[in-house]
Design brief:
CATH superfamily of the largest domain: NAD(P)-binding Rossmann-like Domain
Structural class: alpha/beta
CATH architecture of the largest domain: 3-Layer(aba) Sandwich
CATH class of the largest domain: Alpha Beta
Radius of gyration: 21 Å
CATH topology of the largest domain: Rossmann fold
Helix content: 25-40%
Bound molecules: zinc ion
Number of strands: 15
Distance between the termini: 48 Å
Strand order of the largest sheet: 10-9-8-11-12-13-14-15
Number of helices: 16
Length: about 475
Amino acid sequence: MNDQGRYQRQENSFSHERRTQTFIAEVGGEHARLTSTLLKTGAAAAGVAEVWSDFHGSGGHERHWLLGNHEALIRTVNPDVTYDFLDPEFLREDLEGVVGRHDNSWVVAHANDPAGAARALEQLRDLRVRVLLTLAATGGVIVQRHPDPASALERLDTLGQRRAIPAGSADLGAVAAGMALNEIILGGTSIGDDLDTPRTVGFYSLSRRRRIDMPGAATFEELIAELASPLERATFSGRRLKQVGAGALGNWTAIAVALDGRVAMDVIDGDQEVQPHNLNRQVLLVRGLGRRKAPVLTEELESLDQEGSYAHVDRFVELSSDLEPLGGVDAVIMAPDNDAARLLGADVAWRWAVPYGVGGTGVTGGQLVIQEPARACFRCITRLTDEAASQREPAGGNSCARANNESIVASNMVVAGLLVSELREALAGRRSRNLRFFGNGGGSGNRLGRMTSDPECSHLADVASRTESCSLEV
Ligand SMILES: [Zn+2]
């Protein structure tokens, strides 16, 4: 496959020059298996030249490639990418040469095993390589970018001999992996984003009402302790979902949900065949070139979650009846490429009182909104109107013909992970939050931002009288 095909949709954001100069060394993946797996999947899709790791996944030919050996995983996602094993005892020797050959070299160190990560970085102390200190724990995610191993070690050393921190669920792994990969792709490319200064590029804490505010006074140790606090999360296991969209965002929401296991999901998408230029981000479709997306996605999901049940509906969502009925459905995930479908889905989910998670990504960022049955509706949260939606882009039709936009895999990973995580909160009966991701923002802080979650909503008064047949007036 030629470059113009696979990398066409990311060329302005992750140029051929930067891509072929990019190297990732991952340490501590054993203690962050899902994050490690999703990082490699995303990095391979984006065409990172070389990925080396001290964790190689699991064996077993009967397993789906996402759950198997990582050398095979990377070969499946993108044979252009070189994968190699890192020997934890000889990191310095292993990495010196390869780092010297790549201008854009990064170490991703999973902080789930702080002592192990510190031992690894100690070996690399005088190597000229940037470091992403990454943690997806049960209570949230932190990703810190450091100019060199010594800077990262300063933070890790504050954790002392802290014991291993249990890894979070797949959605949080996708957020952490996506935020780390985003730095590798875009870090330092925008004005004011200084790679020589340590920056906490990602912070997402489920125990904070707003999720993303980082108190300046909090130490790294305190933030880690907060994220490591155990949190009972809702599972998608045994639940029934409908998902609209089998594109980039939909691939990653489906992965984050299906990895819970024993999920029932209908995937609704009328988009055309899988094209080469989809493969830089639509990772579950890599074996489906030339076939229609929805059936390929459900086949992969069936193989990934063999105790689950997945079905596809090969059409665009243009009428309520394309999504209804929602009886017995626990949640709807909306990952289409147009606002008309988002509005239509919101109205249907509102009538049926089903939690509704909506996401959208642009070139290097995106946002997510959760509409809960007894809280403000999607229309009031977004102020989106039918007129605006229809002017911007008509529903239906092939997405690639309509939107010639660039899109990188990292923002889809982050937004999908957050969407699934916030949907979990809604299903657990806790308040979900709506968030934004600015993957290419300058400045010095968190790339996650908040958006309105609880505006005035006049439709709430109608909830009590809501029936399956009523129509929403706006
Ligand atoms: Zn409303």
